[in-house]
Amino acid sequence: MTTNNYDAIIIGGGHNGLVAGAYLARAGKKVVVLERRHIAGGAAVTEEIFPGYKFTEFSYVVSLLRPEIIRDLELPKHGLKILPLPSTVTPMENGDYLGAWDDHDLTRREIYRHSPKDAEAYDEYARVMARAAKAIKPIINLIPPDPSSLSVKDLMGLLKVGQFAANLSEKELYAIAKLATQSSADLLEEWFEFDPLKGTKAASGIIGTYLGPRSPGTAYVLLHHYMGEIDGAFRAWGFAKNGSGGVSGSILSAAKALGVEVRLNASVKQVIVKNGRAVGVALENGDELTSKVVMSAADPKRTFLQFVEQKHFPDEFVTALQNFRTRGSSGKVNIALSELPNFTALPFKGKGHDSALHRGAVSISPSIDYIERAYDDAKYGQISKRPYLDMIFPSMIDPDMAPPGQHVMSCFVQYAPYDLEGGWNDTRRDELGEAVVSTIEQYAPNIRKAIVGMQVISPKDIEAIAGITGGNIFHGELLLHQIFFLRPTPQWADFRTPLKGYYFGASGAHPGGGVMGAPGMLAAKEILKDGML
To answer: In this predicted model, what pLDDT tens digit does every residue of 153-212 receive, in sequence order?
Structure first.
């Protein structure tokens, strides 16, 4: 007989919700995770969109997943296998290309081919960024203190931040301060001269933001993407076996093995509040579940403005959440292919099964100005005519993703504005798909005839399918005023909320978005620390 009484209810079966549930169950607690869709994983899912063709619909690469989560939950035992992405190739409009390989010397020689000056600067730039990322990485596992509070907990938290800062060299402090405030374009133009190199690196600073590479603050977003590690390899990117759904699937398996109950098609209507504290949830189907604590792994606006009546929160808290920036700027185009696109910059013969280019990423980012022009379209509510694209070919890394001899292609698209002028509809989705295909066609002329099927996902679709307000892939932009002790709001960045018994552990919390799992893990640890279970 199914029970409706639990120690903890987790709203949202994305990777953060599953991680939180697993950590609580690991501590001996009775936990249920409620997922509104037919499949767990949130924005990290793999689905068969066309018969035989599997796609990682939203997120698609792995780097930020915390190694302690992998160890604590024994994810490799539950099927996690990360396959390397050995290269990033940037095709150029003149038919040439820039390649970055997993061999340092090859990459340096490649840069030297285009700019001896940049080749000389490359190693020092990499060292500066690596030092900055390693210096700031300890903050990932810090509980953000409230700097305005005199409580012992917050004073101790501030002391930890102070100790962290004291351990940094003067050079590291200045570098971090600069990276937190400047634009990715300004940062890169201080180091390099070759346009495709600057454009490709600047692209990491605009992913998931409603900003261009010349906008202040984008250098921090670039740094955020430098904080990845896979099996101890710093700044390594990979593709999970079975796609992003392979990551979520391994966490789901680990959670279930620890005793977590996962309910699918279980959409939450409202958090039940009695005597000023959260005591359970009411589902859309009329069921009610009770618990000692409730944790939301949904985005901040659903968590605080939809699931709970606003009368239970202070007015200034509600206003801050209403102003939290969640406008999506990214789209995704997933393409089923009868053959690989043949890029003129690095053409293959035959079927291209040994093509090095297709085993890594392909970046359409010929210059900073190219990306800034793409942003100009979005600023005025338009789809970028020539978007920035980050493409991988999952079937070349994991052949199980497509039928034999066929392929799938994943295209991350920037920019596709959530608040598109005139709104999103089938015609506008077709427009986005055409912008992507025509852009690729400039570099791989056979792409159009190779297309078997195409799924076009706008930020509105991300909102509707994955349940993320505004379709923002990070649940909220990673800007200076929305990180650390300001995420999601001042005074409430420690995974607790003004409603007793209600916790928050999603990408909209510290330390931010990406398939990281840290918000769910940290929230679960704070719940256990509070001793309410």
So the answer is: 777 877 777 776 677 677 777 777 888 789 999 999 999 999 999 999 999 889 888 999
Q: What is the pLDDT of residue 234?
A: 43
Name the 3-class secondary structure at 526: helix
What is the reported pLDDT for 483?
A: 86
- The residues facing 230 across adjacent strands are 233
Q: Where are the domains of the chain?
A: 5-40+67-74+241-325+469-530, 116-193+204-236, 327-466
User: 228 by DSSP, 3-state: which?
Assistant: coil
Query: 138 pLDDT band (50/70/90 cuts)?
Result: confident
82-96, 291-305, 464-478 — most confident range: 291-305
Class for the domain spanning 5-40+67-74+241-325+469-530? alpha beta
Inter-axis angle of helices 15-26 and 518-530, to 10 degrees?
40
CA distance 173 to 180: 11
Q: For residues 378 and 363, give the distance between their C-alpha atoms in angstroms, rounded to a whole number.
A: 19
Distance CA 156, CA 468 (A): 34
Contacts 24+ apart (CB under 8 A), 185-192: 185/213, 185/214, 185/218, 185/368, 185/372, 186/214, 186/219, 187/219, 187/222, 188/368, 189/368, 191/118, 191/121, 191/125, 192/115, 192/118, 192/121, 192/122, 192/125
CATH numeric code, 327-466: 3.90.660
What's the pLDDT at 147? Answer: 82
